[in-house]
Design goal:
The structure holds 2 protein chains of 2 kinds. Chain A is an all-beta fold. Helix content of chain A is 0%, strand content 58%. Chain A is built from no helices and 10 strands. The chains are: A mainly beta, B mainly beta.
Chain lengths: 108, 119
């Protein structure tokens, strides 16, 4: 099973700033099978990016994804107040699905 | 619009059993793989199980294999998860989720149902 390690655990930033969240896989994976989710307190997760680079329906273009092999990143170009949440990366492979432990993005 | 509504959560004693349901609407249920994903209180997401469109192909996480059974009824647009031999580690909010068409990612989620395993 692929283990996903996200860093940092918590990020304290201000609205308007740019940020990059990291997701490192325990082995090389195809970007086609990597996704990012956003979860706000008391809500279900929301799909942000899939196939590492494609935005899901309704996701603003300030969100972008990149990476290959074992290192993937989610970039938010200019933080809006509604972006402060927990972010998870997810991999699917060999009929198994794994999530990273999450990065909490909090307001500074 | 797409809707997924879980039900069946509650308090159960260790070693007990529980059955969860997910009622869906707003899409052609039989066209999509469905999954259960759980989240322990204050913790991250853990995939539990997935089932193919016909129900012929099923996958489980190692942590639940042999104890949980996923099933679907395409005539009723519903997904189920039967859970036995529950332990405290199974305490979580259980979400049902529908894949994004043509991918292995979860586009639509229910609001979740809480399962608490405690004596």
């Amino acid at each position: 099973e692929v283990v996903l390690t996200q860093s940092p655990g918590t990020l304290s930033l201000s609205p308007g700033e740019r940020t990059t969240l990291s997701c490192r896989a325990s082995e090389s994976v195809s970007s086609n099978f990597l996704a990012w989710y956003q979860q706000k307190p008391g809500q279900a997760p929301r799909l942000l990016m899939y196939g590492a680079f494609s935005r899901a329906t309704g996701i603003p273009d300030r969100f972008s994804g990149s990476g290959s092999g074992t290192d993937f990143t989610l970039t938010i170009s200019r933080l809006e107040p509604e972006d402060f949440a927990v972010y998870y990366c997810q991999h699917y492979g060999n009929s198994q699905c794994t999530f990273g432990q999450g990065t909490k993005l909090e307001i500074k | 619009q797409v809707q997924l509504v879980e039900s069946g959560g509650g308090l159960v004693k260790p070693g007990g059993s529980l059955s969860l349901s997910c009622t869906t609407s707003g899409f052609t249920f039989s066209d999509f793989y469905m999954s259960w994903i759980r989240q322990a209180p204050g913790k991250g997401l853990e995939w539990v199980s997935s089932i193919s469109t016909s129900g012929a192909t099923i996958y489980y996480a190692d942590s639940v294999r042999g104890r949980f059974t996923i099933s679907r009824d395409n005539t009723k647009n519903s997904l189920s998860l039967q859970m036995i031999s529950l332990t405290a580690e199974d305490t979580a909010v259980y979400y049902c989720a529908r894949r994004l068409s043509g991918t292995q990612f979860f586009e639509y989620w229910g609001q979740g149902t809480l399962v608490t395993v405690s004596s």
